[in-house]
Amino acid sequence: MTQARLLQKPGLPLLQLEGITKQFPGVLALDHVDLDFRCGEMHALAGENGAGKSTIIRILAGIYAPDSGRMLFNGAPYEPQTPRDAIDVGIRVVHQEFNLLPALSIGENILFEYLPRHRLGMVNRRRLREEAAALMARVGLQYLSPDTPVERLGVAEMQLVEIARALSTKGRILILDEPTATLTPREADVLFEQIDVLKALGMTIIFVSHHLDEIFAHCDRVSVLRNGRHVITENTADTDAATLVRHMIGRQLAAQEPVAPMQPGREALRVEHLRPRGSANPEGVGFTLHYGEILGLGGLVGAGRTEILRAIFGADPIEGGEIFLDGKKIAIRSPRDAVKNGICLLTENRKEEGLVLPMAARVNVTLARLNNVARGGILHREAERQASVDMAKSLAIRLSGPEQPVVQLSGGNQQKVVLAKWLFGGQARILMLDEPTRGIDVGAKAEIYALLGELARQGCAILVVSSEIPELMRLCDRIKVLSRGVIAGTLEREEFNEEAILSLAYSQFMTHAETSP
Ligand SMILES: Nc1ncnc2c1ncn2[C@@H]1O[C@H](COP(=O)(O)OP(=O)(O)OP(=O)(O)O)[C@@H](O)[C@H]1O
Ligand SMILES: [Mg+2]
Hints:
By secondary structure, this protein is of the alpha/beta class. The chain is built from 18 helices and 22 strands. This is D-ribose transporter ATP-binding protein.
C-alpha cells in the first residue's frame, strides 16, 4: 500500500473495522466488531479488563490476523501481515507492555530501527545522541542523558521512552494502549500536551485508558467494548462517566464509599531513620504501621516511595536505619527473610517482578505460599487448582481456566493475578502494595478496595503506595506524603483533600527552588 495521495479531510473515516472477529483457545476476544476512526480525531477505547481493547490494537498493528471481518485504511482494504506493514501505512503503536531492551541506552532504544549511521555504516553516536535528545525533550525526559541504560529507569520513564520511540518516525495514526497507567498526573499532563501538538498536526490518535476523566478531558469520541463486543460509540460531549461505566460493566456501579473506618490495633511495623538505596534524605524516614490499618504513601514519582517498600522487603540493601516487627528489631536481608516474617510486597512492575509469565495462572497464584498447598512437602496440584479457581472468582479474573499461561491474559488481569498471589492463603501479616490498581478497570478496582478493607478488618497491616490521590483517600486511614525522600506531612482521614496532598508532595521542591541560587 502506498502512502501517496491520502485523503486528509478531517472527520472522514481513516481506518475502519468491519465485523472483526478473533478467537483464542477458550476465549472469543473479539466478536464482530465494527468501528471507525476518523481523520484527526482522538478516539478512546474503553472497557473492562479483558474486553478486547489490546486485541484490537494488535490486529491494527499487524501482530494478530483477525479470523474474519475486514479492515479499510483510507477506503482501501488493509490487511497487514506483519508489524512492518502497519508502520508502512503510518500506524505507530505504544503497546501496553514494555518492549524495550533493558541493556541498551535510551537513545538506542528510541532509534532502534533507524540508527543514524556514518557513510561507512558505523553508528553515528553524535547524531544518535542529538536526535534521541530531541525526542526525549518532546516527552519531558530532557533531564536524562540519551546514554543512560534503560534498565536504570523507573517504570514511568520507560513508558515515556516507548512514546518517544513511537514519535521517532512520522506517522498518521498514533495508538496508545494505557500510556498513562504508569504515569503520575503531572507526567500524564506532559504526555497530553505532546498529544495535543500531534493532533494539531492532523494526527489521528487512538487512546486506551481506564481513567475516564482523561477520556472526557482529551478525546473527541469514545467506543466501549464489553466481552469482545462493540457496545457503543459516542461523542464525549454527549455522554458522561456514569453512562460509560454502565456500558462497560453492564450494570450500575455501587457508590464510591470509603473503605470502612477501622480501629487500628497494636504496632506491626516501625521503621526509624530508614535510608533506602539512593535516598536523597540523610535523616532517613520513620513511621509506624499498625495491625488493622491501611496506611498510604503518597507523593510524586521519584519521591522515594517504591524505594521504601523495597528496602523493607529486603529487595535492595539499605544505607541505614532500623526496622522493628512487633516491637522487635529485625534484619531483613532478602525478600525470603521478609516473606518468612509475613511481609509481602506487590511490586509496581508486574512483568519484571511479579509473575512467571509462561506458567499457568494456577502456579503463579500459589507461588508465594507453596506451603499452603503442599502437604508433607508434596505439592498438591488439586489444592493449587482449587485455590486459583477461588481467587480468580473473588477477584473476577478473566481466564479460560487455571491452566492458562499468564502471558495470554489481558494486562489488567495479569495485575489481578499478582494480587491474587499475595492474597492467596491470607497469611500476609504485613502487606505492602505498590500502585495496586494500575491498569485495573473501574469495576475490579472497587472489588480490590473491598478486599483490602476486608483484609485490614481481619487484622492485616497494609501499606500502600499510589499516585492516584482519590485511591489513597478512599482506601487509607492515614496518608503520609513523601517529597524528595522526606515525609512532608501526615494526614488523618478527616483532613484528606487533594490539594493538601499535592502541596505536600511538592513541598520539598518549593523549598529547594527558594533556597537554590
Ligand atoms: N495470545 C492470547 N492467547 C489467548 N488468549 C488471549 C491472548 N491474547 C488475549 N487473550 C484473551 O483475549 C481477551 C481480551 O484480551 P485483551 O488483552 O484484548 O483485553 P483488554 O481489553 O486489553 O484488557 P486490559 O484492560 O486488561 O488490558 C482476554 O480474555 C485475554 O485473556
Ligand atoms: Mg489491554
